[in-house]
Amino acid sequence: MELNFESWAAIEDEALVLMEQHHREVGVARPVEFRPDTAQARVLCAAGALATATVRREGKLIGYCMWFFSSDLESVGTLIASQGPFFVTQSERRSRAGLLLLDFSIEKFREFGIDNVMLHHWTGGAGERLGKKFARLGAVPLESVWSLWLGASAAPNTEK
After folding, report:
1. Which of 29, 88, 135, 148 could form a disulfide with 98 if both were Cys (CB 3.0 to 4.6 A apart)?
2. Shortest CA distance to 131 belongs to which of 143, 117, 118, 121?
3. Element (DSSP H or E) covering residue 135
4. What CATH number has the domain bearing residue 47?
5. Is 49 a domain residue?
6. Per the domain annotation, does 145 fall within a domain?
7. pLDDT band at 124 (very low <50, low <70, confident <90, very high)
8. Domain region containing 133
């Protein structure tokens, strides 16, 4: 397997195929249609605010983890990498490709001088196993993230 950071422009066509697979898997929790904002991805990448770690097998993209970079406004000079979409094709999940991708990203962040890596996982199933990996790396639970859809595609909240 080949691990690397690649620009959005270099992987866009391949990544869109995998992103659609990812969207279908988590679509129940995300009531929006698949319409990737490729223009925004290019802008963020060019600004140095987005990087995509990739894993390939024999040249074929089999997984990615997108990372967003920011500064901690409460602590001058503290750099943060926040995990975005993280996906490995179904056929490669038992190959440890996702774990290797995560380890590769964190090692590169040490080299880049990133101070804090913000990690997240879905609840249940593989997400819970990923949480155990985070703990083994030394990460600690920091917060719970809740999703409240307000857009036109949001289902009405009937519970009071």
Report:
1. 88
2. 121
3. helix 125-137
4. 3.40.630.30
5. yes
6. no
7. low
8. 2-137
Cα–Cα distance between 127 and 133 in angstroms, integer?
10
Listed in sequence order, the residues at least 6 apart from 41 whose beta carbon sits closer than 8 Å to its beta carbon are: 8, 12, 50
CA distance 55 to 146: 29
Q: Please report the pLDDT score of residue 15 as a whole number.
A: 95
Per-residue confidence (pLDDT) for residue 49, from 0 to 100: 96
d(C-alpha 56, C-alpha 79), whole Å: 28
Give me the pLDDT at residue 23, please: 84
Q: Is 155 part of any domain?
A: no
Widest CA span in the chain? 53
- Please check whether residue 148 lies inside any domain of the structure: no
pLDDT value, residue 34? 84
Strands (E), the chain: 2-6, 50-57, 60-71, 79-88, 116-118
Structural domain count, the chain: 1
